[in-house]
Amino acid sequence: MTTKGKLYLVPAPLDFGCDLQAPLQDALPLGTLQAAAGITHWICENAKSARAYLKRIDAVAPLAAPLQAQDIQELPREVHKKGDHVGQFDARPLLAAALAGHDIGLLSEAGMPAVADPGSSVARAAHDLGITVVPLIGPVSLLLALAASGLNGQNFAFVGYLPQDGGERQARIRELEALALKTGQTQLFIETPYRNAALLQALVQTLQHNTRLAVARGLTLATAQVRSETVKAWRAAKPQATTDERLPAVFAIGR
Questions:
Q1: Which domain of life does this protein belong to (predicted)?
Q2: φ and ψ at 134, to 5 degrees?
């Protein structure tokens, strides 16, 4: 009887799409990089960026197989657009190699797969198939931002992306603020980097002046910035001038 392989959740550095990259060893422990180097079967968002990441790993911990010999499968495009956390995508076919005895690595573009990124369907399918799921240690932008924000880290929620429509976004901001002020629960959300400035401006214009707003940009990079102040202070500082559209950001609001 063939012993099943394992599904490794392999975190990636947070510098995806940034002009400068942090040294890989500064963002991920050697044990994680060595474990990733030993895997030859992968599930990812994008094969091209997965190969680029594996090339970076190879410079630190030699890969068990050359890049061209790595077996890389992409998650379907609809999973990227709609997410796979609601249970509608069947990822079991992607895990055939694990049933045949091969370990599989699950990758997202940045950070921990299945956390603010696709991948939960793959982990869920692995459990259903009796495949051991092993999360490796690495950066998670949401938790780094929360820890640095000074906001409530005992009660928090990640709510994904806010609506792009101006009116709907304003209503959602007010809804999240009311929840944060009533319950003390920190509300965390993200945006595509080139929309960061527009979202920050909407937050500063919409939130009450005593609400605390935190923005963490470029985490783990040398240019990382974390700012956490009342909205009144943000308004006085013209926040649109301080937002780098190239850097990924995490936004948080609370008491």
A1: Bacteria
A2: -120, 105
